[in-house]
Design brief:
This protein has nine helices and no strands. It is flat and about 70 Å long. It is an all-alpha fold. The N and C termini lie far apart (68 Å). α1 runs antiparallel to α3 and α3 runs parallel beside α5. Keywords: Membrane, Mitochondrion, Transmembrane, Transmembrane helix. Belongs to the TatC family. This is SecY-independent transporter protein. One of its GO terms (cellular component) is TAT protein transport complex. It comes from Pterygophora californica.
């Protein structure tokens, strides 16, 4: 009977925490929808004055899509935090500390990513592709960007940035349980895996896959170099440690 009461209590607590996450997600959705035009203005590239819409319901569904992505991204983080708070009493101290450090690292990582790196990547990609779209010298063509297409590209970039942190964690876990010689030996398989991941999260074109797969390969090589430097540093520490002399207790008894 006591076990049943405890189970009901924990189920009620889990329902409450999930309800908090759902209410928070809907609150974020309503807030972002209220300020939807200001939110789009933040993501506008510099120098762009207008977008083109060709469908009757395109603007409405574009607003809905933008607010849904924004609110559900934050809602997913709120849900993970609520699950951590629910499971924390049953975890060991070191497990709770590891998960807490992961949450803090992820928050700092995504804040720095979206505040500093995301505007730079958006600006570079916009200038790169808009230059080729506007330079029509042979014939008279006018480049008119569509709002839906622009936000679709931002959504793909957002998906890539969201998956970057889990990829880093997965590489670090593999690094912990494998040897550096294995990474060097199967380097070609790692390259193929990087481009396979890029093919799954990008449109089916060579340029998008290259823009995603090439940074993954660079990070893979950086991990190898950092790993080799760390192992060399540990070897130097072991060499510099003093050799402890072990006394023989039987010899000491014989002398006494």
């Amino acid at each position: 009977m006591n076990r049943l009461k405890i189970s009901i209590y924990y189920l009620q607590e889990l329902n409450y925490r999930l309800a908090y996450a759902i209410v928070g997600t809907f609150f974020l959705f309503s807030t972002t929808y209220t300020y939807k035009q200001s939110l789009i203005f933040i993501f506008l590239p510099k120098g762009l004055s207008h977008f083109v819409s060709t469908g009757l319901t395109e603007i409405f569904f574009t607003y809905i899509q933008l607010c849904t992505i924004f609110s559900f991204s934050f809602g997913f983080g709120i849900t993970l935090i609520q699950l951590y708070l629910f499971l924390r009493p049953g975890l060991y101290a070191f497990e709770a500390k590891i998960i807490f450090n992961l949450f803090i690292t992820a928050i700092i990582f995504y804040i720095c990513l979206y505040i500093f790196l995301f505007p730079i990547i958006t600006k570079i990609l916009w200038e790169l592709f808009s230059t080729y779209s506007q330079n029509f010298t042979a014939i008279d063509l006018t480049f008119e960007p569509r709002l839906h297409d622009y936000l679709s590209h931002l959504q793909q970039l957002n998906k890539i940035l969201i998956l970057s942190f889990p990829c880093l964690i997965a590489l670090n876990i593999l690094q912990t349980y494998t040897s550096r010689q294995t990474w060097v030996k199967y380097r070609g398989i790692a390259y193929i895996t990087a481009f396979s991941i890029a093919a799954l999260i990008t449109p089916p074109d060579v340029l998008s896959q290259t823009l995603i797969g090439f940074p993954l390969i660079i990070f893979y090589e950086i991990q190898l170099q950092i790993w080799s430097l760390y192992e060399g540093y540990k070897k130097q520490l072991l060499i510099r440690q003093p050799i402890k002399s072990h006394k023989d207790p039987y010899r000491h008894k014989k002398q006494s």
